[in-house]
Amino acid sequence: MIDRGDIERAATLLRAGGLVVFPTETVYGLGCDAANPQAVARLYAAKGRPNFNPLIAHVPDSAAAEQHAELHPIARELTEAFWPGPLTLVAKRRASSTIAELACAGLATIALRAPSHPAAQALLNAFGRPIAAPSANVSGRVSATKAEHIAADLRPLVDLVLDDGPSPIGLESTIVAVDSEGRARLLRPGALTRESVEAITGPLLMTNDSIEAPGMMASHYAPKARLRLDADAPRTDEVYLAFGSPARPGGLTLSARGDLTEAAANLYAHLRALDATGAHAIAVAPIPRQGLGEAINDRLQRAAAPR
Ligand code: AMP
Ligand code: MG
Q1: Is the model's pLDDT at 211 over the cut of 80?
Q2: Phi and psi dihedrals of 112, rounded to 5?
Q3: What is the mean pLDDT of residues 266-273?
Q4: Which one in 82, 133, 135, 163 has a CA-CA gap of 20 to 30 Å to 20?
Q5: Ligand 1 binding pocket includes 110 (Cβ within 6 Å)
Q6: Which residues surround ligand 2, an ion (CB under 5 A)?
Q7: Helices and strands (H and E) in the chain: how many
Q8: CB contact burial 49-84 (16+ within 10 A = b; e otherwise)
């Protein structure tokens, strides 16, 4: 459990340019003062993240977001419907924004999210400024959904880890860009379903293949083991990640009852656990593509991509 003292300690470290791992409802975040370019540079270095991959700035609410971005009425409707929650909005950055340009990788746009997790909200309020935070994993590796997942090579570079148990959702936020004409594009499928977003925006345009949201890089979220997708059964040298059926001996199931929410929450922890068995390949059962299944399949495809 996280108490008031932990939150104050974390806020003090952020003010001093430190790096703090904190829980959100999606995955654990590696946070720093978004307005402090030295802290942002330190964060990129700790994560081993290419500098062209911009960070999400976390804010408590849409009023705070408006200070940093020009939100089209459609974007505002999205924040009203889904904030706080697992939706990241990409919008035109205000010239007056205090957020370090390095955090936006020099782009004219900025990514903003208001997390709903009580500890994240408490930290944002105690700190009083935006917190830049990517997922708390080494670049290209599986996101952390438990404090224990924070990699041994990342821990020494971090000043504090706020541990509040497993991430309730377990999958990153959905990223939607809304431009100045109100056109909405899906930059990354995620914890908020496309259907929910489209109820407000109408059909989402798809992003082109340029690395606009580098979470879109082909080989991302990669375990060490090879992945074979849409596998109805494991081959002899594979461990099996089931869905809609119980785990096989030596394997795991994302959800025995075929529940996509449960599967999202288990995805990264199970990939890690199967990876840790030293198996050279993980065979993954077919996962339906609707609802949260879109984001789950997206992450699995990236994890399976050649690297
Ligand atoms: P992560 O924090 O690890 O979940 O990754 C953050 C994601 O947000 C990455 O895929 C970034 O490319 C994306 N992102 C952040 N800022 C922007 C931006 N201004 N335009 C497009 N994508 C962005
Ligand atoms: Mg990430």
Answers
A1: no
A2: -130, 145
A3: 92
A4: 82
A5: yes
A6: 135
A7: 8, 15
A8: beeebbbbbbbbebebbbebbbbbebbbebbeebbb
* CB of 190 shorter than 6 A to ligand 1: no
Average pLDDT, the chain: 92
d(CA 72, CA 302): 31
191 alpha-carbon distance from chain centroid: 9
Q: Dihedrals φ, ψ of 176, to 5°? A: -125, 130
DSSP SS3 for 178: strand
Instruction: Give residue-wise pLDDT tens across range 228-249.
Output: 999 999 999 999 999 999 999 9
Q: How many CA atoms lie within 13 A of 99 on its CB side?
A: 34
Q: Are 56 and 173 in contact (CB under 8 A)?
A: yes
Does the C-beta of 90 come closer than 6 Å to ligand 1?
A: yes
- CB 137 near ligand 1, within 6 Å: no
Which residue type sits at 290?
A: Q
How close is the Cα of 112 to the center of ligand 1, in Å? 9
Alpha-carbon Rg for the chain in angstroms: 19
